[in-house]
Amino acid sequence: MLANRRRIINTPTLEIRDLSFSYPDGNEALRDISCRIEYGESIGIIGGNGAGKSTLLQHLNGCLMPSKGNVLFDGRPVARETLAEIRRSVGMVFQDPDDQLFMPTVFDDVAFGLLHLEVSSENIAERVRTALERVSMSHLSDRPPYKLSGGEKRAVAIATVLALSPDILVLDEPTSNLDPRGRRRLIKLLRGFDQTRIIATHDLELVVEVCPRVIVLDGGRIVAEGAVTDLLNNEDLMFSHGLERPHILRHRHPH
After folding, report:
1. DSSP category for residue 76
2. Residue 254 lies inside a defined structural domain of this protein
3. Total structural domains in the chain?
4. Over the range 74-89, which residues count as b (16 or more CB within 10 Å of their CB) and which as e?
C-alpha cells in the first residue's frame, strides 16, 4: 500500500540534503551532496577510486551518519531512532558478499534478518523460498555459503535483502569479481527488479544497461547528474574525472 501511495503522489523515495561527512582522521569524504531519487528509479553512482561512492551509500541506511546535512526517506530523517524502520525499507548489498553470508546454510543466511522481526516460522520459510526463487538460487538452499561460486554468493546476498521486502536496493560494486556469465546473469536480474535501485560501480557498461540516470562523483562532490547516455558519451567530462566513455556506447553490443 505504501509503495502504491508513493506511485500516485510521486513522493521522493530518497532525498539527500547538503550531506557532508568527514572520517575521524579528518578526511572529508563527502561535501555538500544534494539529490533526489524518485520511486522506482534505477540510478548509477560513478566516479574514480576515492570519489566517495561507498561512503555515500553507507549513509543511505545509517551505516554512517552525516557530519552535516540529512538523508530523508519519505520525509523521515535517517537517524538513530529511525534506523530499525529505515533498514527494513533500504536494503544494502555490500561489495563483498562474504560480509553478508556467515550462517551454516544459504537458507539460514536469507532467513537471518527475518528472525529479528515478528514473522512466523511458516512465513519465514515462504519469504526465504520466494527470495531465492527471484534470484534463481532455490536449488542452493541447503548449501553452505562458502561452497558457492562468486556469482552464486552475490545472488544469495541480494536474496538476504529481498527477503525483507525493501523499497530500495542499494548495491556497492555488484559485478566485482564476477566472470562474464555471472555478470550477465546479474545484469538481467537487476533489470527485472521494480524496487528503486541505487548502484555504485566502476562497471560503466552495467550502468548503461541498468541505469537511465547517473550521478558522477569526484572529490566527494557531485560534479554531474543526468541521463546516462548524455553524460557517459561526454568524453571531456569522463576524462576530466578519471573515467572513460564505455565500450558499449562506442560499438554495437551483442546483448
Report:
1. E
2. no
3. 1
4. beeebeeeeeeebbbb
Question: In a 10 Å sphere around its CB, with 0-12 CB exposed, 13-18 middle and 19+ buried, how is residue 22 labelled?
Answer: middle
- Cα–Cα distance between 117 and 186 in angstroms, integer? 28
Q: Is residue 90 part of a domain?
A: yes
Looking at residue 8, its pLDDT comes to 39
pLDDT value of position 11 = 53
pLDDT along the chain (255 residues), means of 10: 42 86 94 94 95 95 94 90 87 92 96 85 92 94 94 94 93 92 91 93 95 97 96 94 88 55
What is the per-residue pLDDT for 7? 42
E-strand stretches of 104-252 = 168-172, 196-200, 213-218, 221-227
* CATH number for position 36: 3.40.50.300
Any domain includes 255 = no
Bridge pairing between strands 221-227 and 213-218: antiparallel
Q: Of 188, 131, 124, 119, give the one whose Cα is nearest residue 158.
A: 131
Q: Which residue has the cell 566485482?
A: 176
Strand partners, 73: 14, 76
Residue 29 lies in a domain: yes
* Signed CA dihedral, 214, 68, 219, 174: sign only: negative
Does pTM top 0.85 for this prediction?
A: yes
Please give the residue range of the domain that contains residue 107: 2-243
